[in-house]
Specification:
heterodimer; A: 323 residues; mainly alpha; 13 helices; B: mainly alpha; 12 helices; 0% strand; flat
Chain lengths: 323, 288
């Protein structure tokens, strides 16, 4: 039999609790460091691209943003064409994707029978899982020929409409801003529709039921009750899609046609910030490379702002929900 | 009166039909893209893809790209999984209601949809360029740089899922453990992380599905290589990178190989995301 004296036990406990406190502090420090790495990534991405683009930004300043002259042979770099291309393709994508995404969300929350909701929404969200390079290949090998076949028809119909007619005139190349915009629309559709679906489900049942009880049709409930209630989050979802569209590279690089001419026609080839970087970076040296990194900085800042707005809008609804 | 009713009913009918069409349109594009990939991919699928390297061009396969992608994806996970899990734990357990925690959570959501090509540029500037300067150009683009770029894609996914999963662990578990006098780090590692293990694992798989299909961040970090290499400081081929390169090539024989690669990578990514979806559906969590 061995007697256990209390004194070493007490010393043991004290020693242990001191060690625990030390480990707790270390652990907490480690965790905080890892969390700060997330901040570091965002900040680092902004600063490093700014640093990498310093040559061209010092040389040209704001002129870099507004000049449309992109000429690696003469070492002249103006970012206007890629900027316009990025904005135009993203805008086309939004114009096409938002109504469709709204339709999908409406169908999945109000119309579809219960057994179909799960599988259909999974299928739509699978679109988001397809790697963007696959969109690019499908776009180039399948969708571009398809567009080339319907563009003469677009020329004859939409091309003759006053005001917007000029947008739809041009040779039926298949490649171009419109094609890229449509491919982007397919890509961002699942992002927008899943946000809309999620927030439509947060509308209190009593609001919808009251409206139904007064004799509203499904459409009136969605348009007059659900949509106003979720407005900020819906806008947030749309901005989230816009953020995706602005930064997307692989899906548009193949189908844009890589041309630095700014034209009034959506059927003409163009370029975008991300596709310029992807196409030219590995052959670029010196100022050219610096100009491409500066484009990356620009893209980062713009998407950051768009995504910031998106998240703030999404948070508004969550706040009201008391979450 | 009946005219108004008729108009309302017709408006409603049109809206319902259009929304059905919208859903159908989305499904058509899904089936169209998958069908084209399956059709072109299956007809080009053969054993050579797995045995020969890309140096043989249209007589070759994708073996070095497959190996390169596996290595880089794995290294990326090794980098981003521990960091992401720890950062997510910090948000859920230590900074849940602090201002720092809220802003990191907010910015992590932004990182989640940040353009991947910019993250590639970031890694190019902070890793590829300095290493190239230090070694006078003998080492520049590398598989290591590629995996860091991919890790940045996966990181926010893991942070977010870990954060959400830990918040689902009931508070009583924390109270019970703490009342027994165990230190907080032990509570976190041995109780909470164990309770949320399947959820955290799902997050890691989700991150893998996300980063395995990425091309843009690899273009100027891993660059690509026509030969087999397993050395992390060599230029390294990747599946998406090789598909990109082959698609840009005018040779139709290379397009066929690219389609086969596209099929493989799509199957891999979709299988992973379906798997995580099934694992997730048992837990209530949002992940867009």
């Amino acid at each position: 039999m061995q007697a256990i004296s209390a004194e070493p036990l007490a010393r043991d406990t004290e020693h242990r609790s001191r060690a625990d406190a030390r480990h707790d502090l270390l652990f907490r420090f480690l965790l905080r460091f890892c969390a700060l790495l997330v901040l570091g990534t965002l900040l680092g991405a902004a600063l490093s691209t700014l640093w990498g683009g310093r040559e061209v930004l010092f040389k040209d300043g704001f002129h870099f943003l507004f000049s449309s002259d992109w000429n690696p042979v003469e070492d002249q770099y103006g970012a206007l064409a890629p900027i316009v291309g990025t904005l135009v393709t993203s805008l086309i994508a939004l114009v096409l994707a938002v109504p469709v995404a709204f339709g999908v969300a409406l169908f999945l929350t109000e119309i579809a029978p219960n057994w179909a909701r799960g599988p259909v929404s999974t299928a739509i969200e699978l679109l988001a899982g397809i790697p963007s390079i696959i969109y690019g290949m499908w776009g180039l090998f399948v969708f571009v020929p398809f567009m080339a076949s319907i563009e003469p028809w677009l020329n004859d119909t939409l091309g003759n409409v006053p005001v917007i007619g000029a947008l739809f005139q041009g040779p039926p190349l298949g490649l171009g801003l419109l094609t890229a915009g449509i491919v982007l629309a397919v890509m961002i559709l699942p992002f927008i529709s899943s946000v809309m679906r999620e927030v439509f489900k947060t509308v209190p049942a009593r609001l919808k039921e009251s409206s139904y009880a007064l004799g509203s049709t499904t459409w009136e409930v969605v348009w007059d009750i659900v949509l106003p209630y979720t407005r900020s989050a819906v806008i947030g979802g749309i901005f989230l899609g816009l953020g995706r569209a602005l930064g997307e590279t692989m899906a548009v690089t193949f189908v844009l046609g890589n041309s630095y001419n700014i034209t009034s026609s959506l059927l003409m080839p163009g370029t975008s910030i991300s596709s310029s970087i992807a196409n030219e970076f590995n052959e670029a040296v010196g100022l050219h490379r610096s100009a491409l990194i500066a484009l990356g900085f620009l893209l980062f800042v713009v998407t950051f702002i768009v995504l910031l707005i998106a998240r703030l809008m999404l948070r508004q609804l969550a706040r009201r929900e008391g979450r | 009166m009946s005219a108004i009713y008729a108009r309302r009913r017709i408006t409603n009918g049109i809206a319902m039909v259009l929304s059905g069409f919208a859903t159908l349109l989305g499904l058509i594009f899904l089936v169209w893209i998958l069908w084209i990939t399956a059709q072109n991919g299956l007809s080009a699928l053969n054993l050579t893809l797995f045995t020969k390297i890309t140096a043989y061009a249209d007589q070759g396969g994708l073996s070095n790209a497959i190996v390169g992608s596996l290595i880089m994806d794995l290294m990326a996970l090794l980098i981003c999984a521990p960091i992401g899990v720890l950062a997510g734990t910090y948000l859920a357990e230590y900074a849940n209601s602090t201002r720092l925690g809220a802003s990191i959570r907010f910015l992590n959501d932004i990182l989640l949809s940040a353009p991947s090509i910019v993250l590639g540029l970031f890694v190019y500037v902070i890793i590829v360029l300095p290493i190239s300067d230090m070694t006078h150009g003998t080492i520049s683009f590398s598989g290591f740089a590629g995996s860091v770029a991919l890790a940045l894609i996966g990181l926010p996914v893991i942070v977010r899922t870990t954060d959400e999963m830990l918040q689902l662990v009931p508070g009583t578990l924390r109270e019970a453990a703490l009342s027994l006098g165990i230190p907080q780090w032990k509570l976190t590692v041995q109780v909470l992380m164990r309770a949320a293990f399947s959820g955290i694992l799902t997050g890691i798989l989700l991150a893998l599905a996300r980063l395995a299909g990425e091309t843009a961040p690899l273009l100027f970090t891993a660059f690509g290589n026509n030969f087999m290499t397993m050395h992390p400081l060599d230029k390294m081929a990747s599946m998406p990178g090789t598909i990109y390169q082959y698609t840009n090539d005018p040779n139709p024989a290379l397009h066929a190989i690219a389609w086969a690669g596209a099929l493989l990578i799509t199957l891999f990514v979709l299988a992973l995301s379906l798997l995580t979806r099934i694992m997730f559906s048992r837990k209530k969590v949002s992940y867009e």
